[in-house]
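Lab notes, practical 5.
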Amino acid sequence: MVDRGRPDGRRGGGARGRPVPRREGDAGQRARAQARLAELLAMGLPEQTARAVVAGQRDLNDVLQALAREHRAVVLSERHRIDRSLALQVVDGHADLEQLLSKRRRKAYMAASGQRSIFTDRLASDRPLVLGLLGHAVREGRVLEVAPYEIRFAPADAGPEETLHKLQVKYAHDPADARGVRKALGRDAALAAVEARPLVRMQDRVPLPDRLLFPWFEKQTRLVVTLVEGEQWTGTIAWMSRYEFGFSLKTGIEVDILRHAVARVELT
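Output from the prediction step:
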């Protein structure tokens, strides 16, 4: 029988008689979109973001990467109590987390200990100390007064009181430790041959910023510290303040070193 629905007499359908698939109607497209939206919401995507993905306005992989980045930043921010902006810089590799945390610890430490000084400690305790002075001089005595730039000092040998500028002082230690300090002392021959003068200008001194010293202090890094007139000790930083740091020798003896008197610091 001839199919009267086609002028050429062929059956309806495709080129070889196959049925032509129907196009999905609006209702079917909406159902698929709703199902996809529900799937994305179940994955934890915000609704606005999920709708943008369904509409083809955003790529799902890009969205997932952005959410993972944000999650890592939130975890870092909460764990280490840092700003979200800093946490994002860490996640993106633009900032070093350990450096950020070290800087925060350094600021807290210096806020608590930045004004520490062996001069004020010995004034308060009325205990004697030994001072190493420029000109290769050594004095033992007691601190009688501490001013911003000077100390008034009473020598142990009953000599006259002296007013010493702090820039004259290279190091200090307890008199009981004098033998151990001398035993641990090394010498830089070239510097020992020179009599140094007070370094009044900051630009004339070896820069020893807190950000350099503090990691050595925290990690107890072994150092060789050489002073401007050649005195040299090996040890670790026991404490630090704005103008001084305590230097612990291998024997456990501590020498207080004035930062302005340092000529060189080397890692061992």
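Observations recorded by the TA: The two ends are 104 Å apart (CA to CA). The mean pLDDT is 90.
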